[in-house]
Design brief:
The longest helix has 29 residues. Helix content is about 75%, strand content about 0%. α1 runs antiparallel to α2. It contains three helices and no strands. By secondary structure, it is an all-alpha fold. The two termini are about 30 Å apart.
């Protein structure tokens, strides 16, 4: 049961991190179109889309409290490890 919950947590975090990463890379890829010869309307549209992509925040957050990315997973693992170390130390003193 715990392994299933850990896998769910991993997929939730990795999916959110990939979404954020790919959204940020999209703006960079759209800038490559400016190297080609385009008509004026298409060039304006690409420029507006690039500006909107660069201004938007694509990180996945839970009600603005914390971001769901790999730092969340690192923090959870470090908290669990520290708690286990303290519990083992208390167990050894008894």
């Amino acid at each position: 049961m715990t392994l299933f919950q850990l896998m769910q947590f991993y997929y939730l975090v990795s999916g959110s991190a990939r979404l954020t990463d790919r959204a940020e890379r999209t703006a960079l890829l759209m800038n490559r179109f400016f190297l080609c010869e385009l008509d004026e309307q298409l060039e304006r549209t690409i420029e507006q889309q690039t500006t909107m992509l660069s201004l938007d925040n694509f990180s996945v957050e839970t009600y603005g409290m914390y971001r769901i990315d790999y730092t969340l997973m690192y923090s959870a693992v470090s908290t669990i490890t520290c708690t286990l170390i303290v519990m083992i130390q208390f167990q050894l003193t008894e």
